Amino acid sequence: MARIHTLRSSTVPCSETATTPVNITTTTQVPVLSDRQPVSREKGCWAATSERKYYSLGNVHVKRSLRPSEFHVRHSGDLVVPHQGKERLQNDAACLRFIRSATNIPVPAVICEFEDQEAYYLITEHVEGICMGDLSEEKRRVVEVELEQHRKTLWSLKSKRIGGPTGLVITPHRLYCYADTLDLDLQDASEEDFVFCHNDCSQANIIVDPDTLKINAILDWEYAGFYPRYFDRPWYKRWGPAGALPSEEDDRPRLLAFFRTWTKKSNKQNTAGPAPVDSDPAHVCRFKWARSRPLQKGKAGDDKPDGIKPNFSPGLTRPIKNVHGRS
């Protein structure tokens, strides 16, 4: 049987255990669900993936990590363990707070975050609007102008330290299958060489007012932090994932090389020092994409430098509309 956390009036962000009432801006109930309860029976739960569950409850949006008992199992029998499931939500919350305090970029306000029975919850305000990907090409071009300004604002934020505002280093999603192999004990730069990058700025993560075309919120900052500028590719220029399509340059070898040369261990052995970080991101192709059309899979023998696996996606489908604007 589901248990309930009652969230009462306050405006102070908080991080509490599940045994203590959590204060937010309105009286809302957030279900803390028993393991393996079907999504269809969970109040307010509108989506679930192999890593997360999502809820829309009144004027709040909730996403949480899966509990170990909820991990998916592949046909091979292997357990799908989400990489840095808790840490990514923690970084998301830290980045949202940092961006709201340091810039005028529109992002959802963090209401609270807490852990309950091995699941980490992040609760943010509800934001009205539609996904940028649901606009016409002409209207998307208008939104891009504002996005480019926000991007410049992000790049004006600099640091000597790699990673998020609290020091968490979350590798971009396109390096997901290599994340467990990377040493993330990284050295600092001698100067403030790293700029703030979103690292997942796709059309699905841009919520827009359909009438004014103003951006209401930029979502999903879990991979964000201070990195070389070339990490932050303009994925919003076309529909699709935050990863190279077959017609685009695969920049994963470059990103992997960065992490390998900036480890403290590697730099002790590298008298030339780490690689430069001030070059621009790789180009992203702009084209009209048939959203329901699956990507063409490459051949098994496709060559990739540095042992890189082909960057394929089984298909692209439209996201559920109005992620932060559902009624």
* Number of contiguous helices: 4
Radius of gyration: 20 Å
What spatial order of strands do you see in the largest sheet? 2-8-9-7-6-5
Query: Can you summarize the main beta sheet?
Result: 6 strands, mixed
**Beginning-to-end CA distance, first to last residue:** 25 Å
Query: How many individual β-strands?
Result: 15
Helix content: 10-25%
Strand content: 15-25%
The count of domains is 2
| Low-confidence runs of at least 5 consecutive residues | 1-37, 288-327
| Shape assignment | globular
**Series of H and E elements:** EEEEEEEHEEEHEEEEEHH
Plain-language structure description:
- This protein folds into two domains: 10-125, 2-Layer Sandwich (Phosphorylase Kinase, domain 1); 130-307, no CATH class.
- It has 327 residues and is of the alpha+beta class.
- Residues 1-37 and 288-327 have low confidence and may be disordered.
- The protein has four helices and 15 strands.
- This is Aminoglycoside phosphotransferase domain-containing protein.
